[in-house]
Design brief:
Arc Repressor Mutant, subunit A; 102 residues; 34% helix; alpha+beta; three-stranded antiparallel β-sheet; elongated; 3 strands; 4 helices
Amino acid sequence: MPEQLGRDPDVLTTAELAAKLGLSAQTVRRMANAGQIPALKTGKDFRYSWEAVREVLRQPHHEPGMPTDDQPDEQPKKGAGYRAQRRARTGAQTTDEPTDQE
């Protein structure tokens, strides 16, 4: 396939990015709409920087509901299993005895 003159090889269409990632074009569009991958809206479609998408996809994945490094931990949501989750994150020892701080 001959490359178009003046076209940056780093900039990909939805179909090109989908092929590189092994995903459907619909999935790539959904990820762009959700802000999961960086994209530039061009009319009805998007354009993607291959390097920018690769950088985002290389970042560690965070489970929903778990705090990330950029979220403050001062006021976490409390609920069932909160103390167990907190102990697991901090590596604290499990005790069955209540403390005076609770």
